[in-house]
Design goal:
The structure is a single chain. By secondary structure, the protein is mainly beta. The protein folds into 5 domains: 156 residues, no CATH class; 139 residues, Jelly Rolls; 90 residues, Alpha-Beta Plaits (2-Layer Sandwich), CATH 3.30.70; 312 residues, Rossmann fold, CATH 3.40.50; 88 residues, Immunoglobulin-like (Sandwich), CATH 2.60.40. The protein contains 12 helices and 49 strands. The strands form 11 sheets. Strands 1, 36, 37, 38, 39, 41, 44, 45 and 46 form a 9-stranded mixed beta sheet that branches. The two termini are 38 Å apart.
């Protein structure tokens, strides 16, 4: 039976917000959750091999092994996500390093030219400041990143071994240091690098009040001597004179620099000092300008899920039409999100429970997402914004990410709040979107052409079924997520007649580990897998779209990685919007017929329709082409080559993966593949006579020394070509995945109480945990580290996991004497640079350890 007060969002359970807090109470016992049974709940933490933890964190439960100075550097693999903690003396929380300080962490990493180092500073609330330094194997300074924002980053100039230093300038903070394949264009703004092309000893600054000279004489800047020149717009150029002494923060850096590096470092240190002043609007280097090209949507290249379904080729035909409207029936939308600017039409809020709605009333005409968090310090999911962003985020604005049908429009319909939703509110939202009579007494100016529902439950509601049938009769194409329980159990409304049910695949086109399957699945689309990084970009292979964070007093607009069938469904809705733009008269029945006929998909799994992928993986180009052909139109496009994934990461113990090579829009001729990588083998898997299809790509580490290896696979077909960058890590036998000391918490879902805690050393691929004498009831399980010793696991910069995933916790129901086994992944949650106030992050959970209360 579906619990109507806790209707689950498929892809990110709203139930997570009922306990994300500094939970108190509890103890070692199982607690009484309404039953007499006593059960053992156990399982394994799965630790990804690319995870490494700083060897000297602040948690007193750990045994610190110093990784400073440079000669004591911690050897780590590549690609890698390193979680760590640094602090100046007497800064941060009491723990191992509180009194003496631990300002330096050094890592020895074998890296390749073109890879990037990205430092994510977790804590900025108290003016914490971390910098990033890069040394060659001889200890000579190569580059440095000095800023006062959340991210520092560096580009690796050549193949070789490097020492990487994370340095706490002030304060104390967790951090995440990532190594991966990141285009240089995606390096963050605000982090000034020693290797940047700028004029030494010149600073451009604009003060916001009073005289410049008074500020230059401030003790903070007394170590610098300036000449000043005034320019238009209040900008001044400060020219550094001779140095007033050693200004570098540490003698070890100062002693290993050329004269030019020393001058450039002086410049960056002066900028850093100015940036920290409240009376400075901005300070920056005087950059040397040369012709360059900037990608349009800054983080589009992180959206691997779009090339996977041949969207770039579909966009050659259409990017949508503003007359095509997609209703997103969900948590509402952050109406002020930059990715939603100009993308919305009027919607409605159908949450009838005022307390759940969080806006002080029942249904109203404002569909803004007021948030679903129910505990202080927790962030809301802003799930509907993520879904809407995938469908039609603002695109071609040189920021953020892209949407599938960005020239189409979103109608936000709010039915899910703090306590989920109910089928009556859902039905009213469906009727409103279709322009039918509903509880609001109003209808939209123009009805929706498509409805997306990334939500559901296991009960078949007649009220919802009839609303779906009525909307379809009005010509609305209705799409829903199949569910995330990894079961063939039917989920509704996805399994209602007339609804397109969407399962999810990962980056390798395999059914995602969480995705439902079965007789009602119609089509598959990218849903992602946050546990993996198969393309080696140091980001989890989740779906990237718009989101937000309201865990503090100020709402921040962000980009977010999520995974789930919730993320797969809007890909289908977006493609349907592209089809409607190419063929406005398309009916739901025609969409169904084209889908069943294989005109919209690439076949996966068993030939024809199957219970995993339905009629196959959506192919945006085929779908748009089929729509325009059926509509009697046609836009000719040149044949194109589609290769996915666009990079391969044989991280640690991964041996084999799949490469897909396809031609789109015509005949390119035979495929020609070339590579001179001695440790790599390509073998045709399922290919046609011209070589198009899937290839097994296998790495062979035998006989290779520990280190990082890279190469390129070149693919040509006619006049088209594509290259796939490949990276492989051979581990030292002593190295394995290490997420550090973890605290596994058993949480009572009804009372939000932490009932039991299990401590494990999360080293190796699988680490066991166990809770005994668990009473009957509903529970959730979380696991995380506490590197900064603040008593909270899973906060910023720390490893975190939950069953089934951290982004979509699932209830575990205890009701018998059987032993319940639940395995899940714990890892560091990747956060990527912000772009004009847009940050990219995965969800953070806050839970208090029992042993620190």
């Amino acid at each position: 039976m579906i619990r109507l007060d806790k209707l689950t969002i498929l892809g990110l359970s709203l139930l997570v917000t009922s306990f994300i807090a500094a939970c108190g109470g509890g103890g070692g016992g199982g607690g009484d959750n309404g039953g007499a049974q006593s059960v053992t709940v156990s399982g394994s933490l799965i630790i990804p091999a690319f995870v490494v933890t700083d060897s000297d964190v602040n948690d007193v439960v750990t045994t610190p092994v110093p990784n400073h100075p440079l000669t004591a550097a911690q050897s780590v693999p590549n690609p890698v996500n390193i979680g760590g903690y640094v602090n100046q003396p007497r800064e941060g929380f009491p723990g191992h390093s509180f009194n003496s300080g631990d300002p330096d962490d050094y890592y020895l990493i074998d890296m390749q030219a073109g890879q990037t180092l990205l430092l994510n500073i977790a804590d900025l609330a108290n003016d914490e400041d971390l910098d990033l330094f890069l040394y060659d194997i001889n200890g000579t300074l190569v580059d440095a990143s000095l800023g006062v924002t959340k991210f520092e980053s560096l580009l690796i100039p050549a193949d070789g071994q490097y020492y990487v230093n994370v340095y706490a300038v002030t304060g104390a903070s967790n951090y995440l240091l990532s190594v991966g394949l990141t285009p240089q264009a995606q390096l963050p703004n605000g982090a000034f690098r020693l290797s940047d092309d700028f004029l030494p000893q010149q600073v451009l600054v604009r003060f916001n009040e009073a005289s410049v000279q008074a500020r230059i004489e401030d003790p903070l800047l007394a170590q610098f001597q300036f000449d000043t020149e005034n320019y238009g717009g209040g900008v001044q150029r400060l020219k550094l004179k001779e140095r007033a002494g050693v200004v570098a923060s540490r003698a070890v850096v100062e002693s290993q620099m050329s004269d030019q590096q020393r001058q450039k470092l002086d410049t960056l240190l002066a900028i850093k000092a100015l940036q920290k002043r409240s009376d400075v609007d901005y300070a920056e280097p005087n950059y040397i300008v040369r012709p360059s090209a900037t990608p349009n949507d800054e983080y589009y290249s992180l959206q691997w899920h779009y090339p996977q379904i041949n969207l770039p080729q579909a966009w050659d035909i259409t990017t949508g039409d503003n007359s095509v409207i997609v209703a997103v029936i969900d948590t509402g939308v952050l109406l002020g999100h930059p990715e939603m600017n100009g993308q919305l039409v009027a919607g409605y809020d159908f949450i009838s429970d005022a307390e759940s709605a969080g806006d002080g009333d029942g249904i109203d005409s404002n569909p803004n997402d007021e948030g679903d968090a129910v505990q202080e310090g927790a962030s809301s999911s802003f799930h509907g914004t993520h879904v809407a962003g995938t469908i039609a985020a603002r695109t071609n604005d040189s920021r953020g990410a892209a949407g599938v049908a960005w020239d189409s429009r979103i109608m936000p319909i709010r039915v899910l709040g703090k306590h989920g939703g109910n089928t009556l509110d859902l039905a009213e939202g469906i009727r409103y979107a279709a322009g039918l009579s509903n509880a609001s007494g109003t209808t939209p100016l123009n009805r929706a052409d498509i409805i997306n529902m990334s939500l559901g439950g296991n009960a078949d509601s007649q009220t919802t079924r009839e609303a779906v049938a009525a909307a379809r009769a009005e010509g609305v194409i209705i799409i829903a997520a199949a569910g995330n329980e990894n079961t063939s159990q039917l989920s509704y409304p996805a399994s209602n007649p007339g609804v397109v049910s969407v399962s999810a695949v990962d980056i390798n086109r395999n059914l995602a580990f969480y995705s439902n399957y079965g007789s009602m699945i119609d089509v598959a689309a990218p849903g992602g897998d946050l546990r993996l990084d198969l393309n080696g970009d140091s980001r989890p292979d989740g779906v990237l779209s718009a989101g937000g964070d309201d865990s503090s007093d100020t709402l921040s607009y962000q980009l977010v990685f999520y995974n789930g069938t919730s993320m797969a469904a809007p890909h289908i809705a977006g493609v349907a919007a592209l089809m409607k733009a190419a063929y406005p008269a398309m009916t739901p029945a025609e969409f169904d017929a084209m889908l069943a006929g294989g005109e919209l998909t690439s076949d996966l799994g068993d030939t024809g329709r199957d219970d995993l992928y339905g009629h196959g993986l959506i192919d945006a180009f085929k779908a748009v082409d089929a729509a325009q052909q059926r509509g009697g139109g046609g836009v000719s496009v040149d044949p194109a080559l589609s290769v996915n994934p666009q990079s391969l990461n044989f991280s640690h113990n991964l041996q084999s993966t799949t490469l897909f090579i396809e031609q789109i829009g015509g005949d390119l001729g035979s495929v020609q593949i070339s590579e001179d990588i001695s440790w790599l083998t390509l073998q045709a898997n399922q290919v046609d006579a011209s070589g198009y299809g899937s290839y097994s790509v296998t790495s062979d580490r035998s006989g290779l020394a520990a280190g990082t290896y890279s190469g390129t696979i070149q693919i040509n077909a006619g006049s088209a070509s594509s290259s796939v960058e490949v990276i492989m890590q051979v581990l030292d036998a002593s190295i394995s995945g290490d997420a550090g000391i973890h605290y596994v918490l058993l949480v009572n879902n009804d009372t939000d109480e932490v009932m039991q805690q299990f401590q494990v050393d999360a080293v190796g691929e699988n680490v066991n945990y166990s809770f005994s004498e668990v009473a009957s009831g509903d529970y959730l399980i979380f696991a995380g580290s506490d590197m900064d010793m603040d008593g909270i696991i899973c906060d910023a910069g720390e490893s975190c996991g939950a069953y089934a995933t951290a982004s979509q916790p699932s209830i575990i129901t205890v009701e018998s004497n059987d032993i319940i086994e639940r395995d899940f992944t714990a890892s560091y949650e990747y956060q990527s640079p912000s772009s004009q106030s847009l940050g990219i992050q995965t969800r953070t959970l806050l839970l208090r350890r029992l042993d620190t209360e």
